[in-house]
Amino acid sequence: MYLVMAVINKNNLKNVLEDLFSNNIEGITVSDVIGKGSFGLTEADNKPTDLVEKAKLEIVVSDEDHRTAAMECIRSNCHDLGRGAGKIWWLEVGGVERIRTGEKDTDALTTQVNKKIQNVPYIMTSNIDTPCS
Known about the structure:
Elements lengths: L1 E7 L4 H10 L5 E8 L16 E10 L2 H15 L7 E7 L13 H4 L24
Antiparallel strand pairs: 1-3, 1-4, 2-3
Helix pairs in contact: 1-2
């Protein structure tokens, strides 16, 4: 399993998320971040630069094929020959557990649609059960 992280321009975020979803990659954490890619607070011409608002993506995937697909989704939607296009990096993940069900590793990363979860009773709710319906 791998944790793929990327810092990208916010204006590319929607396209990246749509591409990830179309490649069946779900479970994405998006954070607003600020930063500067190159070291130092001045450019080559000694003019000061500001920290730039970006989006940070964190995606845990089950195998190398999904890691490659996630990285290609990010790369293809964010590729820019100018500065500030962003960075992608990845780390190996020792394990994952879904808190709600206790599923571990690959099972914890799969979608819940049409998946029967063992040891979790079906609970029927109606508008009578909650006063805020």
